[in-house]
Amino acid sequence: MSDASYRDAIFTTPLDRVASFSFDEQVVACFPDMVRRSIPGYGQILGMLGVLAERHLRHGGHVYDLGCSLGAVGLALAARLPPEAFTLTGIDLSPAMVERARATLASECPEHRIIIEQGDIRTIDYRPASLIVLNFTLQFLDPADRDALLGRLYSVLEPGGVLILSEKIVAEDEAENAWLVERYHDFKRANGYSDLEISQKRTALENVLRPDSLATHHARLAGLGFERVTTWFQYLNFASMIAFKARPGGHPHDA
Ligand SMILES: Nc1ncnc2c1ncn2[C@@H]1O[C@H](C[S@+](CC[C@H]([NH3+])C(=O)[O-])CC(=O)[O-])[C@@H](O)[C@H]1O
Ligand SMILES: O=C(O)C(=O)Cc1ccccc1
């Protein structure tokens, strides 16, 4: 298998019919370039995940990376934390992603205890975890499945554990949302995507990537029992939140 990553050219030519976006071989082959040019703050969020884990992950604790794609979250944690600091399970539905993630992690951080499994994060069995990361994954689930999944994740988090949720978001005010979407398209244009690529990708993501508002995310997480929810990052219509599960009787949120 090749480690090469290609430039994202999936939507460069006009298509008679734009098929729904899926995480297939074609997307896997250009995924690092696609996320870097399409997700504002992607690299900054990954860099900060290591810092947040240093602060909030219990030493030796277990981490889930749900919708791990090519394993970028595991790589980011391994870059800051030694092998004894954590074990990590990455889960992804796409066999092509899983195959490539395994190869990358085996060559980049062989000492770290990271395993990648193919599966559906809505139905797998979970074990207790100290840190759970959903880095731009919840947005791809049927909205009707989101509460149940996050409820299960809350129940498997240890007291004092944290959930980090990064998402594309929609602003509740229509004019604000329109401005954010336009500037997001400017961001993509500045990163080399053409108007045709932007509009065909938008069509491909309809009914596939369904963003919630920050208010919906906060209300959902608070309603499930998280003690505190903070939006620690926002760049245009992309944001990352951290949610804390209380430590009964203890001082909350200590490392
Ligand atoms: N039900 C599901 N179960 C498991 N995986 C799923 C499911 N639905 C979608 N996926 C997977 O979720 C991932 C979303 S990408 C995450 C980026 C990564 N976190 C990163 O930090 O680079 C985000 C993006 O491409 O915008 C894909 O690999 C899907 O196969
Ligand atoms: O929301 C978009 O328009 C994107 O392009 C984000 C994105 C990035 C990578 C895969 C799918 C969606």
Automatic annotation (TrEMBL):
Superkingdom, natural source: Bacteria
Keywords tagged on the record: S-adenosyl-L-methionine, Transferase
Binding site for S-adenosyl-L-methionine: Y42, G67, C68, S69, D120, I121, N135, R202
Domain Methyltransferase: 63-161
EC number(s) on file: 2.1.3.-
Pfam families: Methyltransf_25 (PF13649)
InterPro entries named in the record: CmoA, Methyltransf_25, SAM-dependent_MTases_sf
Reaction catalyzed: prephenate + S-adenosyl-L-methionine = carboxy-S-adenosyl-L-methionine + 3-phenylpyruvate + H2O
HAMAP family: Cx_SAM_synthase
Similarity-based family: Belongs to the class I-like SAM-binding methyltransferase superfamily. Cx-SAM synthase family.
Quaternary structure annotation from Swiss-Prot or TrEMBL: Homodimer.
PANTHER family (alphabetical): CARBOXY-S-ADENOSYL-L-METHIONINE SYNTHASE, TRANS-ACONITATE 2-METHYLTRANSFERASE-RELATED
Its job: Catalyzes the conversion of S-adenosyl-L-methionine (SAM) to carboxy-S-adenosyl-L-methionine (Cx-SAM).
Protein name listed in UniProt: Carboxy-S-adenosyl-L-methionine synthase
Source organism: Modicisalibacter tunisiensis
Gene that produces this protein: cmoA
